[in-house]
Structures are given as C-alpha cells and as structure tokens.
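Researcher: I'd like a candidate sequence for this fold, 297 residues long. If you have to choose between options at a position, lean toward the conservative one.
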C-alpha cells in the first residue's frame, strides 16, 4: 500500500504542457515571426528604394555633366566659315552654332570642333613626295575621323574651319573648299579637329522607359546617353532676359549662356510612394557659359 501511494505521488509531481499553453506559445511565436518578417521586408524595400534613387541621381548627373562639357565648347574651332553645316545627305541642316528645336522640337544641336583629331603633317607649299600642296590642300596623320560626307567639316588648329571636298587616301591629303589662311607648325603639335553637330533630345517613343539621346549626325543614329530621363529643357541668355524657343535666328548669335534643366525618375514606380504616379523624381539645372560664341560668329 505504501509503495502504491508513493508511485501516485510521483506521477502527480511531474510537469506537463497543456493544449492551451501550446496554443499560446504558437501564437506568440507566430507574432514574433510576423514582426521579424515585416521588419525584413521594410528594410529590403528601403534598400531597393535607396538603390533606385542613387541610380536616378547618377543618371541625371552623368547626363548634365556630359552636356555641360560639350555645350561649353559650342563654336570651338572658329567655325563661322563653314556654317551652315549639312549632314545625312542634306536632310539635316544647322545654320548656327546653337540651334534650338533642331532636329526636332525640344531638342538642341550645337556645332563645335570637338570630334576626333589628327595632326597636321604638311600644309600648302610643302612637298608630299613629288606633290606640291596647293593653297587648299593639307596632309594629316589619320583619316579615321574625316570623309567627304558626314565627317567633312574640319578646324585646323582650332583657328579656321573648312569643308573637305576631296581625299587622296594613299597620301592622306585633304582637299578643302577654301584656302588655308595661316601658316602652322607641322611637327605634330598642330591638331586638325573634326567639326560635329551634337544633338540632344529625350526619346519619349516609349513612355515607360524615356531615354536622353545624343546624336553626332554622322549616320550612327541617336545613341543613349542616360536612361529614365523624362524631361530636358533649355533657356537661352544673351546678357538680358532669358529666352526660350522659338526665337529669331539673329538672336542666336548673341547667346552667351544656356540654362539646361534635366529631370530624371526612378526606374520603377513605388505603390507606397505618395506621388502622382509612384515615381520619385530629381531635377538638376545648370547654367553653361558658351565661351566660343563671340569668336565663332
């Protein structure tokens, strides 16, 4: 009898988990897991948003920095003697150093000797073998950036502009449309610049992925400069009140500064962002002084 009572007393002292306690533990665990999951999702979303914002800011800065460098050089090469310049079989003509709304509305095209370069080897009066160079002929180190079609405009030493009307490929001799006006060093220190018409425009043919494009008008087409750029704006200053296109052609010669405004957006919309369409946007504006306008025109 004593042994039986001892066994019963031992069984009663053993602890166990009731069904209610198990359910309470499961509920608490589920709540903790849900909270941790929610925290993880929030952090992941914040990281993605920050990454998109960084990409957007990088895009807009790359775009405006590239345009700043090139627009600042508009007119370089004393190119007034070759204006207007024509490209692509005469389908595109740019009459000025700065050309608002060309080749399409909202675009800007600047003309400048900022293409690839060669060095001047021989000038008028020099001998190239048995050939005595005439007053409108020069020899250059490379023909890679020149032809008689879309790459025919050059600037010798950045001082005078000409158009190429003929090429002696074997001797690398360029025949120009006008006489060379100055005497240059032929020791490799005189550069022959390729004059280009650089166009900037926003391609909105695909609204879901607007792209800022840059075109050299040499047949390669408009190439992507920056993605997710949905707006590009210009204002032109001649020392007085800023103007926006359209404007008289005569006013273009007076332009000394161009204000460029670029608006970029994130690659994807954020449904939780309280914006108009869920896209975050950044706008950068920069005033660019066109240093060569007074020289070229």
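Model: Candidate sequence:
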């Amino acid at each position: 009898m004593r042994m039986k009572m001892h066994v019963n007393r031992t069984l009663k002292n053993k602890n166990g988990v009731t069904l209610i306690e198990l359910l309470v533990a499961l509920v608490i665990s589920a709540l903790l897991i849900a909270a941790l999951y929610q925290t993880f999702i929030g952090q992941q979303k914040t990281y993605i948003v920050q990454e998109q914002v960084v990409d957007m800011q990088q895009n807009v800065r790359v775009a405006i920095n590239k345009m700043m460098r090139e627009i600042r050089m508009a007119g370089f090469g004393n190119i007034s003697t070759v204006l207007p310049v024509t490209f692509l079989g005469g389908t595109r003509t740019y009459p000025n150093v700065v050309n608002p709304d060309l080749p399409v509305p909202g675009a800007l095209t600047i003309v400048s000797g900022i293409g690839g370069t060669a060095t001047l080897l021989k000038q008028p009066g020099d001998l190239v073998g048995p050939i005595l160079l005439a007053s409108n002929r020069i020899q250059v180190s490379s023909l890679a950036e020149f032809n008689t079609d879309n790459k025919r405009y050059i600037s010798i030493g950045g001082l005078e502009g000409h158009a190429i009307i003929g090429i002696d490929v074997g001797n690398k001799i360029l025949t120009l449309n006008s006489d060379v006006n100055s005497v240059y060093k032929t020791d490799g220190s005189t550069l022959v610049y390729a004059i280009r018409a650089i166009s900037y425009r926003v391609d909105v043919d695909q609204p879901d992925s607007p792209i800022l494009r840059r075109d050299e008008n040499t047949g390669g087409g408009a190439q992507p400069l920056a993605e997710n750029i949905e707006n590009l704006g210009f204002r032109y200053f001649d020392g007085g009140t800023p103007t926006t296109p359209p404007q008289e052609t005569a006013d273009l010669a007076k332009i000394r500064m161009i204000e460029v405004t670029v608006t970029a957006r994130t690659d994807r919309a954020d449904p939780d962002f309280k914006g108009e369409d869920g896209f975050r946007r950044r706008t950068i504006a920069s005033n660019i002084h066109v240093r060569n306008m007074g020289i070229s025109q």
